[in-house]
Amino acid sequence: MADIITLDDVRDATILIGKILRKKGHTVHTxxxxxDAITHAENNKIDLAILDIKLKKMSxxxxxxxxxxxxxxxxxxxxxxxxxxxxxxxxxxxxxxxYCVKPIDRDELENKVEKVLGLSK
Length: 121
What we know:
Blueprint: E1 3-7, H1 11-22, E2 27-31, H2 34-43, E3 48-52, H3 60-70, E4 75-80, H4 85-93, E5 98-101, H5 106-117
Parallel strand pairs: 1-2, 1-3, 3-4, 4-5
């Protein structure tokens, strides 16, 4: 299955995403610090990044841009508790593949991950 990183400033959110996706057979690395997630992506092949838009030091959109420089093929799903059309447009224009609204819905997350990774039937 896929190697996935998830980055959110709320540790419980990363834990929840990790539990959901590990049950589907994915390897999930969870981060609450932007630098740690970026360093991991620089040193490991990542298939998918799940990024919260609101982080501690950077925005998720800034992290998205950095990850795309590291590996343009990386797939990205953005998360937000504050959905706006502008944020969605910006994330998509920078290369995000999907967008999920928090609180996280297990079925929606599983479906979007499968779709983005090309695993859906």
